[in-house]
Design a protein that fits this description.
Elements lengths: L1 H19 L1 E17 L6 E15 L4 E18 L2 E19 L4 E19 L2 E4 L7 E13 L4 E10 L11 E13 L4
Antiparallel strand pairs: 1-2, 1-9, 2-3, 3-4, 4-5, 5-6, 5-7, 7-8, 8-9
Amino acid sequence: MKISTIVLLFSVLVTVSAQAQHVNVGLKAGLNLYNVNNSNAVDYNMKPGLYAGLLGHIHVSKQFAIQPELLYSAQGVSYTVSGTQTKLKLGYINVPVMLQYMFDNGFRLQAGPQVGFLVNAKSETGGSNTDIKSNYKAVDFAVGAGVGYIHVPSGFGVDARYNLGLSDINDNSTVKSTNRGFQLGVFYQFKHH
């Protein structure tokens, strides 16, 4: 139900914007380098993951654009206790909305809010998986900032972004934990001008 609502909202945003602005739709994917920051100063190890999804690039003017995205994002951490490694695997549907400043040479600066919807949470220890979704909040708020480059004739590009979690993801703990991490990826915009 949540995923279909997200897809519907994203589609409406892109469709409405397309009627008034120049819009490119595209695909993007890449590498997540996420971690979880804890208020009790317990450190975790970064667990690499992948992200993939859709983007809508909406020109507001020659230099500015709004880019809503709909991404599945594999996040989480790993940690070792008494020689046993545990991996915390968090899966989100993230909806960032980036305001972009576009230079004439294809480079872009971007920043904006992101809302994430938790779709799965598992703890893996010794090859055994445990569903722990009930321990985490269903919604995660963040802000992101980064840079990108597009090769205008082909529509292919690369981008790098840092996402800083603002909300506590724990649902059953007094320890405040927030997602944060880097994303490195590639994208393709159809019919880019």
